[in-house]
## 1
Amino acid sequence: MRMLPIKRFLAKATRHRKRYGRPLVTLAYAQSLDGSIAARRGYPLTLSGRESLRLWHTLRAAHDAILVGIGTILADNPRLNVRLIRGKNPQPVILDSNLRFPIGSKTLNNNKLPWIFTTESADRERQRLLKTRGVTVIRVKTTSDCQVDLHELLHQLAHRRVNSLLVEGGARIITSFLNERLVDQFVITITPFIVGGLHGVEKLLCSHMIKKPAINYFPKIKNYQHHRLGQDLVVWGSVTWEDS
């Protein structure tokens, strides 16, 4: 698969952080032919084949940090590290507005312990407990619906010299990053199944679209390519919005 060479990719990411004040964001997930990433919310489903999973770990090794929501942690209990290839582990970043992060999380077994982004209203005692386990809890401002503000989160990551961020989901996280126009490139694995379950992109309703939706307000894929990996089809490219 013709992905960017690692050194060139990291150079591009560094320039991006310095120019925009936030990391380069890659959105990556696996879906069925009908767009499902799980059978239903809270019930994980392995879709990718072996070759695609190796690609996934190559992507992890190429990024400084990897981000998921607390729903993915509770449902899948992922390690968020690199295992199927030789490479460095990314920094785990978790969005957890109410500090529901479980003490039994497998991410606590990594050489890089997770950074949890939460809100000012999250429980202080819970934060102290997590701190004893080596977890870094970072409080940021919230949006109108009491969720972590993604723009401030990315600013905080840039301040910590994170040049590149891999966003793996779940569905609410994927949709939120797209709604906020914070995705720079994507890698999607399409697998030959029809699931009829939870879609990776739930609903795109940016403020621009509410009164009069127009095609130019939706994310557009440019310079996209595709490649067959085993039984899976991998599609990747850059994301732009024509009206921006």
## 2
Amino acid sequence: MTFKFTAFHPLTSPDLAAAFHEGHTRILTDLGIESITSNYPEWMSDNNVIAIIVTHEDGSVVGGIRVHKYDGTLELPIVTAIKDQDSRIVDIVENKRLTGGIAESCGLWNAKKVFGQGISPLLARSSVSLSNQLKTKTLVCFSAPYTLRMIKQLGFNEISEIGDQGKFPYPNEKFISSALEISNIQNISTATIENHSRITSLMAEPIQTVVEISQGKELTVEYNLLVHFA
């Protein structure tokens, strides 16, 4: 099975941005999390956002993920999610912005037709490589319990200064989600050997075709992760 992973800037590729948003919204609606709306979110016009969209070999859009760089204006999604529980996240993000730059990997989704096919780990890994193009030192994310193991294998660690060692009841008391970071994107020392190797490869060569093994599945992935900015 072949998939195309295409990175884009929403301002230069509005059609891809719309397809990403519509696919993501459809999944959230199916899960009862969010209603479909015709209003497009702020990230679609944000100069500091890049994203990846996944296309199935049949041409359908089946997944995506975004990376948001913080420039001191639009709040990162992780800040919006947890600042009411622990306001220290605001200062942490601002300090990281001033000492090398900070971005967030967020908005991970995949369509029902590819559930269990290993798309999510490859998307999450690709988003780490994308942060290199945004020239940031720190990459953060907010992980649900069911994706935590996958995220930590990429080199993320809990932000222990906030919450309960980085853990928060979110989106409600039934779930304990985690705020995590890679503190130096150029030296991901805690990633697994395979993930470190593939992240480094995608940073150096963002356009490549590789047979990936993910969640026990063999996938041919055509990567085009070189982003053209507005």
